[in-house]
Amino acid sequence: MSSATPTTTLQFLAIPQSLADEARRTLTDRFGHRLHVTKAQGPCRLCLRVPNAPEDLILLSYQPLPDTGPYAEVGPIYIHAKGCEPYADSQTFPADFAGRRLVLRAYGHNGDIVDAVVTEPGEAERAAAAFLRDESIAEVHVRHASYTCFDFKIVRAA
Ligand SMILES: [Zn+2]
User: Fold this and answer.
1) Whose CB has fewer CB within 10 Å in the chain, the N or C terminal residue?
2) In three state form, how does the secondary structure of the chain look?
3) Neighbours of ion ligand 1 (CB under 5 A)
């Protein structure tokens, strides 16, 4: 008799393209900040690439959770200044983040935080899957381990 553990298929989500397009077009973010193009090494939260050398990026404020409560914090993210391809391989952990220590924050369906962990390089995908086996967790946010800026979301594949 099989006792296989049900697997949780994960989906790795960049920021919405519409938000990046709007910031590029208006050079204003949704919090009213005036934006400009700067040379930096990302990572870009739309294509989920980490440039090897400084590239033209825009820094903007982003709120990864809906504005339903105190956990809906706002923080800085980079996007490429010119159109880049949104991250499309949504069932694969973004390769440019695989070698990093990361912070994973798990949020419930009401936007409250449920749990959090710091993961060593290569461990984030397994840790996110473990969080998302718990039905009370709606999404996991991946963040930089020291700066703690938002990088991308992990959810259950539909
Ligand atoms: Zn990009």
Assistant:
1) N
2) CCCCCCCCCEEEECCCHHHHHHHHHHCECCCCCECCEEEECCCECCCCCCCCCCEEEEEEEECCCCCCCCCCCCEEEEEECCCCCCCCCCCCCCHHHCCCCEEEEEEECCCCEEEEEEECCCCHHHHHHHHHCCCCEEEEEEEECCCCCEEEEEEECC
3) 44, 46-47, 80, 84
